[in-house]
Amino acid sequence: MAKMYHLFLLTILVVIIPTLVHANVKEQPLYWDNLLPFINDTYWRGKAVTAQKANSIAYTPDPYAVSENMTSVVSEMIIGENTGRRNLAVKKLKKGHPCMATNPIDRCWRCDPNWAKNRKKLADCVQGFGRKTTGGKAGRIYVVTDPSDNDMVNLRPGTLRHAVTRNGPLWIIFARSMVIKLNQELIMTSDKTIDGRGANVIIARGAGFTIQFVKNVIIHGIKIFDITVGNGGLIRDAENHFGQRTRSDGDGISIFGSSNVWIDHVSMRNCRDGLIDVIMGSTAITISNSHFTDHNEAMLFGATDGYDGDKKMQITLAFNHFGKRLIQRMPRCRYGFIHVLNNDYTHWEMYAIGGSQNPTIISEGNRFIAPNNPHAKEITKRDTSEGEWKNWQWRSINDVYLNGAFFRQGGPLLTNRAFSRKDMIKARPGTYVGRLTRFSGSLRCRTRNAC
């Protein structure tokens, strides 16, 4: 165990890299210099080793098979609608009201008017690389009744911080609509679901979420915006542990060395650092049905060129809307395998998808609407020379380009693999993105009605 951790620590220590002018805080060497003293103790060493083992189990040796399976489900749904065999987008309920479930994840649960009595059904609906995530399905329901977040060590029962630091699985819901200002980063334990359905739950004007060295987390149906930096100090991270923490990053959601994470129907904007960052060997992650606006560097997948542990990073981005006043990094990737499926890119100012260190990026059935700026039409950005990146596997399949947008592809053609033309169902899903992402972001779900 000690040997594994020392290798992990050594890898971090050698991270001294050149960064972009607008670099994420995690891309700065000073970030790691400040962080290491706080995680280099017996407690966090043990969590790091446990998390590494879980991440290795969550890793999929053949990522193409996983991504093709999700592609087939979407294509089959569209083909079914076109041929009249079935209509999976609109389902008539008993009272005659239509249920608009326009993609296969939503179709799994949204048309059930009794969703509030069967909340844990949601855990059966995740697809993509995070498909094995069950969150708190095996645990009891925990109801958040108190929006306060004051004492960081002696936590008040009924608060969100008290809920996410309990040992064992919990399905966390909210008694009513509330705005929660987190005084410090919200550090979660494994096997948790945060389920905002049935209430308007807003995390704003304080710190964000930290998913560090844990597994099996679902965050669903909440709004996160105006996230700031927490000053650090003594913070509880489990029932039986609290410790000193450095300043938080200012991310909306930070996923650090964790696996089996699903973020769904979340609305996010304007965080001090990134909206969602995924770093340090995190894997088996799906980000779906979410709405992102008003941000510069939206998503960072892999923080440093010097940490090749992110080669195991596998992330699905599906049915999300990248909307108004976004500038870049949707996402920006290092290493790993990223499947970008049926997302709607309606705004960017610099570029949409970027990367370094030879990540595999499969862009499939997305809609890209370029800005009017003639110098920002390219969707992609590589932080290296063409002589190097031309062999990276960046492929665009059935994407739709509007207003002059273009995707610069690289790498060998995907023949004899899951994405070869002979294996693709004859559909152009990119033309259906407006429908598939129609209900992105947090939903207004009411009990006894379909969402």
TrEMBL record:
One term of GO molecular function: pectate lyase activity
Pfam families, alphabetized: Pec_lyase_N (PF04431), Pectate_lyase_4 (PF00544)
Compartment annotation: Secreted, Cell wall
Swiss-Prot/TrEMBL catalytic activity: Eliminative cleavage of (1->4)-alpha-D-galacturonan to give oligosaccharides with 4-deoxy-alpha-D-galact-4-enuronosyl groups at their non-reducing ends
Keyword Signal: yes
Cofactor: Ca(2+)
InterPro entries: AmbAllergen (IPR018082), Pec_lyase (IPR002022), Pec_lyase_N (IPR007524), Pectin_lyas_fold (IPR012334), Pectin_lyase_fold/virulence (IPR011050), PEL (IPR045032)
Pathway: Glycan metabolism; pectin degradation; 2-dehydro-3-deoxy-D-gluconate from pectin: step 2/5
Signal peptide: 1-23
Protein name stated in the entry: Pectate lyase
Lineage top rank: taxon: Eukaryota
Classification lineage: Eukaryota, Viridiplantae, Streptophyta, Embryophyta, Tracheophyta
Residue ranges annotated for the Pectate lyase domain, each copy included: 177-374
SMART domains associated with the record: Amb_all (SM00656)
